[in-house]
Every structure is written in structure tokens, then in C-alpha cells.
Design a protein that fits this description.
about 190 residues; mainly beta; 6-stranded antiparallel sheet; 16 strands; Elongation factor P; Rib_uL2_dom2
């Protein structure tokens, strides 16, 4: 289905310049002189690159048919990860470079959403927050508050995040998977 610049919205996936792009942000601009246009920020779903693109009236592109399937992470294998479709029990091996952003917070048994374009797997979407156990950090400081500068902590997946000074080793915390920030205790 061909769409134009007025049909853009956040989260929409389009086929543009022979690639797949997700609209991260867009802004309609109506200058006092000249025609209106749309300034947009697009993310390439195959490479992860983010580009700023200006669309003019008359620019047409196709809306991409992207599907997501719920899958459960099973285990690591060579340079990839094995996932199982929760509906069909079919197993799929995804290369680490396809899901690099998800690896920091991925645990065995975790359910994720695999994004697909036809039969091509584009990546994995984690839940917005995940509970993870802290395996290594400095001892907590009594009387510390959440507004302090924080300290580094390593969680069970190996990722390093910043946590408040009162958090101790062995505690389970909630992490925002989009930016890797501490959200609270589990």
C-alpha cells in the first residue's frame, strides 16, 4: 500500500530506498514561504542506523508488512541464540549481531517478541522492564538515598548498570531495557 508524507506516524515501518525503516520521530513543517514538508528520524531495521530524512509532497513509499511472534529464549549456541516459538514450538537460531541490543538483558526462559519481514528475522524486542539479580557491586551505604550519584553494578547477564548507593549484591532489581536504567527493587 503506497502512502505519502501525511500518513507518517511514530512506530510505522516503511520501505524506502530499498530498505526497511521504522519512523522514530516526525514533524510537519509549514514554512511561511514555500511548500510544507515533513522532517523525520528513521531507523534502518537491518543495520540499526538512524537517519534524518525530509519528505516533500508527492513522495510515496510502501508500508512494510512487519509481523512479531512471541518466542522464548532457550540457550546460546556458537555465535547465536536459540529461540522457540511459543505457539508452534519451532526453534530458530538468531545470530548475535541481529539481536545485539537485546543481549545485555536476555535470560534463559525469557519471552521476547521476534520481529519479522516475510521470512527475514529483523531482531528481538525485550519486555520494557526486566528483573535481574545483581552479581557484583560495592557494599551498600546505610542511609543512602536514591537521589545520590549511584555506583556501578554487574547483573546476572553480565551488563553493567548504575544503581543507587543503597543497593547490595544479591538483590533483584528492575531494569528499563530501552536505556539500561535502574527502575527499582523487584
Amino acid at each position: 500500500m503506497a502512502i505519502g508524507m501525511n500518513d507518517l506516524k511514530n512506530g510505522l515501518t516503511i520501505e524506502y530506498t530499498n530498505s526497511l525503516w521504522r519512523v522514530l520521530d516526525f514533524q510537519h513543517v509549514k514554512p511561511g514561504k514555500g511548500g510544507a514538508f515533513v522532517r523525520s528520524k528513521l531507523k534502518n531495521l537491518r543495520t540499526g542506523a538512524v537517519n534524518e530524512v525530509t519528505f516533500r509532497p508527492g513522495d510515496k513509499f510502501e508500508q512494510a508488512d512487519i509481523t512479531t511472534r512471541p518466542m522464548s529464549y532457550l540457550y546460546a549456541e556458537n555465535d547465536g541464540r536459540v529461540f522457540m516459538d511459543v505457539e508452534t514450538y519451532e526453534q530458530v537460531n538468531l545470530p548475535d549481531d541481529k539481536i545485539a541490543s537485546a543481549l545485555k538483558f536476555l535470560l534463559e526462559g525469557m519471552e521476547v517478541r521476534i520481529t519479522m519481514y516475510g521470512n527475514e528475522i529483523l531482531g528481538a524486542e525485550l519486555p520494557s522492564t526486566v528483573p535481574l539479580k545483581i552479581t557484583e557491586t560495592q557494599p551498600g551505604i546505610k542511609g543512602a538515598t536514591a537521589t545520590g550519584s549511584g555506583k556501578p553494578a554487574i547483573v546476572e547477564t553480565g551488563a553493567t548498570i548504575t544503581v543507587p548507593d543503597f543497593i547490595n549484591e544479591g538483590e533483584t532489581i528492575i531494569i528499563n531495557t530501552e536505556d539500561g536504567s535502574y527502575k527499582g527493587r523487584a
